[in-house]
């Protein structure tokens, strides 16, 4: 038997993970120069 609470937690983790990836991709595409500068400074 599957636990409804477990399913809810897994769904939340998957959704938040997808949102984080989407935000990261969006940010890297909109701010490529900033990321390159930060890497160069280090």
From TrEMBL:
It comes from the Bacteria. Keywords: Membrane, Transmembrane, Transmembrane helix. The chain crosses the membrane at residues 7-29. This is Lipoprotein. It comes from Candidatus Mycoplasma haematohominis.
């Amino acid at each position: 038997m599957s636990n409804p609470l477990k399913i809810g937690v897994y769904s939340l983790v998957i959704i938040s993970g997808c949102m984080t990836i989407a935000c990261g991709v969006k940010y890297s595409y909109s701010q490529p120069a900033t990321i390159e500068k930060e890497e160069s400074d280090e």
